[in-house]
Amino acid sequence: MSTMAHEGNGTFHDELHHHAEDHHGHHHHGNFWTNYVFSQDHKVIAKQFMITGIVMAIIGIFLSLLFRIQLAFPNESFAFMHAILGDWAPDGRLDPNFYLALVTMHGTIMVFFVLTAGLSGTFSNFLIPLQIGARDMASGFINMLSYWFFFVSSVIMLISLFLPTGPASGGWTIYPPLSALPQAVPGSGMGMTLWLISMALFIASSLMGSINYVTTVLNLRTPGLTLNRLPLTIVAFFLTAVIGILSFPVLFSAALLLMFDRLLGTSFYLSDIFIGGELLHYSGGSPVLFQHLFWFLGHPEVYIVLLPALGIASEVISVHSRKPIFGYNFMVLSMLAIGVLSFIVWAHHMFVSGMNPFLGTVFMIFTLVIAVPSAIKAFNYIATLWRGNIQFTPPMLFAIGLVSFFITGGITGVYLGNAALDIPLHDTYFVTAHFHLVMGSASAFGFFAGIYHWFPKFFGRRLNPRLGYIHFWGTFVSLYLVFFPMHFMGFGGVARHYYSNTAFTFMEVFVDLQGFITFAAILGFLVQFTFLANFFYSIFFGKKSTENPWKANTLEWTTPVNPGHGNWPGEIPHVYRGPYEYSRPDVKEDYLPQHIPDEEVERADGFPEHEVPPKRESSPVEVKEVDEE
Amino acid sequence: MDPQSLQSIIGIAQVLLVLIFGLVCLNLYLVFRLKDIDPFAKWNPNKINGTLFLVFLVVGLIAAVVSTGAWSDYYILITNPASAHGIQIDRMFMNTSIVAAFVTIVTNGLLFYFAWRYRSKDKNQKAYYLAHNNKLEYLWTGIPAVVLTILIVDGIFTWNNIMGDPPQDAIEVEINAKQFDWTFRYPGADMDFGATKVAFINEGAGNMLGFDVNDSKGLDDVVTRELHFPVNTDITLNIKSRDVLHSPTLPHFRVKMDAVPGMPTHFTFRPTVTTDSMRIIRNNPEFDYEMSCQQICGGGHWNMRAIVVVETMEEYQAWLREQKTDKPYFAVTAGDKDNSSDIAENENADQSNVKVDGSVSMNQ
Q1: Residue B225, domain extent
Q2: Amino acid B1: pLDDT
Q3: Looking at this predicted complex, what is its ipTM?
């Protein structure tokens, strides 16, 4: 395989060379369209994913504020609501159907478009070639297609917001029959059709991306970068891609069958329905079948969202603690265990769906087993901090915040994974609190940690750290203020997806708390502008970065400040050791980059040079060894 | 001065204050920028952020404990269970909570304490080189595994207990869900439900539940808008939906089960506290048990309320007798009734559509 990698690199050089000759050296960087729009360079594609992800995040979070205002003030009317939403907010109050549409679109956009494509798309694309020492992805063309499928999918999803019947309104899980019948909710008309088309394109995009990531990691590693020397970011992106390849097609089939039910009148999910004063012809289908298919993707999806964030946190915490990540092997094994187990826990979303209770027992066991590797990861992060030399840079702050959310949000999974406890807690705000902390907040913090950490590599400039501190503390505190009190509402039995809590006496008492949460959410939203201002200002006017501003070990920091097409101007560096050799007592500096051969390492005082092994042994690992991996 | 103009003056004053504040900030910024002064130059970010983590830990912990307590009066889902299995669930909830609170506080505590304690004081200093320690790894693999095993075993027994076969003598009550209300059906004097089918629904005639108008067993079925249960008696809910998914939820009883069109589902439980007793326990004479829908089902999802009353067996039977049973749309009359109910007793055939096990009958 390593020979292939060599050949691949050779071909790439030839291509570049050839390209340059063709255009007599003038256009060897391509024109505006091929450079910035239909680019096949992984770094440009990563930036495209990043910007699109940020735009989608702003939209997704803004939608949530609209319905949060409704929850906080269920009986008030706001002129601005009518101004923004027109007929969807007659008299300045949200229409109940549009409330569900907002909830649905918030969930869909945040889960798929921000935390799946925005996170994986940005960092897998950017870091995989840079950290494994590859010129680009295995297939730049498919990589480009992956982005443009995602782009078209985003546009279609956003267009559905402007339909007269509204966007999809059945929740992001689009359970039929609600999502199949336009009589049941207006959003299940054209809005749902566009949702399904958009998701089909999204799945195609995700698959093209994932196949590329897997191929690139397996085939294009630089000599010496054996699989057990991979940075944990790459391990996480790799496993995420594998999980995506195995699970997204199942969502596609689920969506396809739903499409058939809607358009062709088949009965995969529908049976015995009387709605809108008439009996429908469907018979013999099962809504529970859809839930099985949906969650077969849906649960791995949680880890598709979370694993990249955990990978980024591993890298960031190690670099900024100036300490090796604690228990590298256990970190890899636990991610592997999470990846495998994520496929056999899906029905814990369905304990009270009417499925056979025996299934509940089986899925409860696997669900609580998956808590063990998660716990290992949390403990290893904490152990990495112990006796570190912690530099509180903005990425480090976000990584620590991520671990806190991961713990606080993860622990409530032990309640929900327990079928008996899930009976009362299912579909209450307790669930909302759980997954917003462990999946939403933790992954969002992974995204931020990644942006702050790799911004110098993305744009060759630095973000303003002070704005970063304000951004972190504002976001960290407000996210806890938003999601922690939701546990209380869960204990109070307050149901999710409720337009108003005023219809039930046991829910009504929490309207004040809803108001508090809404204010915290608005605060959190406003704080994001410190990030946006910092981000866009620094792209153009930020302080110029150096090549390796964090003194990190991994290969991306060996490229020029602004790496060009092909990443390294000369030869690709070889790798001689693992990525987390920080603060080694025998080395002068507190870091030891992967690409420096042992004989060139500057030793610390008192560690004689003769301890360096003979040169032959420290040369890059032989081709055969990589092959065996 | 009339209140309206006073309000607008206050409004203008607020806007002015914000403007002035903004201008002052801008001014300060420009002065610092022009004179190249950095007012925060002496601030050490490691010290500040490290300290803030410690402050966050202490303040956060206090706030979490105080606020959790402050709302505890309203935690109907985890206090004062009103059913037999609810007591088991609440016990397990408390056990899990003790573990969860301990783990959350210790791990978050260590995380923030280490963050503060090992903040870099000197850039040139080195961290302690420690790449792994397998004993520690085994320790924190083993302990969660053991604790989780205990919780799993407890959970499995409780779950199987709740979901096990219902007792023969349980009272059956049917919940019919539709957008956006509930209709309940009791078997009536013959203790037997008349056959129903979605295809038989005739809203114009008033046959909302789709009674088989030729099945006289349905004539005495009691159709209500309120749920009444006798206390300390096993109740089996037969749950149906005629349009989309719903999820009848009785939070006080720790009961929840989706209503699935085309597939009846079931939940058996035993209410143990009457409405009157719960009013005394909760010290609230207005208290009522309520049932809600907790599976997203459309625009009226938030408003599918039904009152649930738990009373003594005598009160329950008296209430049942008071309910009207007239169903003018039936083809058979009360005269035919005795005939067919005898047949039904012998054959017990028409009951099949409500008795089949939901989990395997979805294709029937």
Answers
A1: 171-355
A2: 62
A3: 0.89
